[in-house]
Predict the structure.
Amino acid sequence: MPAQLAPAPLVQALVAALGLGLAACNSAPAARRTPPPRPAPSLSEEVEPGAAEKAPREAGAPAEVAPVGPSPSAGSLRPATVAYVGGTALDVSDLLEHWLHRDSPMVGEMLETLVAARMAELEAQRLGILLDEAIVEHETQLGLRLLEQELAESGAGVTLEEHVTRNLGLDHARFVERVSRDTLRQLLLERVVRAWTLSRPHAIARVIVVSSRERLESVQKELADGEDFAHVARVYSIDPSSRRGGLTAPIIKVEQSPVTEMAFQSEIGEVVGPLEQMGSFMLLKVEERPEPISGNWAQIRSRVEQSLIDRPVEDSEFLQWKLLEERTLGVDRTPFLKLVREPLRPSRP
């Protein structure tokens, strides 16, 4: 069974695109959702060359990512022509530059979504991740139903197929293919990120965050009197993790930070803190430090899949993976800046 996760960011991007058409029809903006992180040795140390090709195929037809070839150098890129006007060419640079200055957050979001998807595809190939086609189809249908629901709630009075063909001017069959492809990307992304997390030293912890010293003292007294940490977190914590009893995304032992030090220098079960940050006070309790996993997909699959069922990938986990994987793989956005005729910017440290 696939992990039941929140709607895929890549599918949400299609929902956002669908929303553009809905806004045009109803003059009401559709909600846009932002998708859903040092170089460290990757699982490649335990994966022999060609392991992706040797990994056993699952029952049924597995859905695989097409091999990704080398990228052309920035200097070799020639903008594609998108239209001719009076015999003169309009190229993709004109289109992207115009779009960027009309909605730069959307363009940036789409670019970063594609960057993350490509990094996940490369890592999935290296690990030899194979997904059963039935799982991809199941999740694709969930995404399509989400789109149908968005349409129904908008009061547009049309089916998804009618909206795609009439209002967006797109081919419906091609649209469904795109949803399926993006669903596959998202499923791979979730597994790559969680495999990355589980392969590093990490701590499972709960936190309580309060906004005043008075509340901190009352919380500390309740804990000292034996009150359950998770219960106190649900009642008093202002952190979003409070609804899960203070359970946070796994804390990865990467670059040193005050939270990392608390998570890896304390005893398991010990309440440590407070850590004061931006006027708030945080208490932390480590519940376990699991042994990191290693191996190819056939060896780690069950652990990763069960972990995703137990807890979806969270934003902080994804962002940490993305930032650190960029350093490992190398991501060059210079071609995009050149296409949109923006000044080149210093590389990220």
In short: Strands lie at 62-63, 81-85, 88-91, 131-132, 202-210, 251-252, 271-277, 280-288.
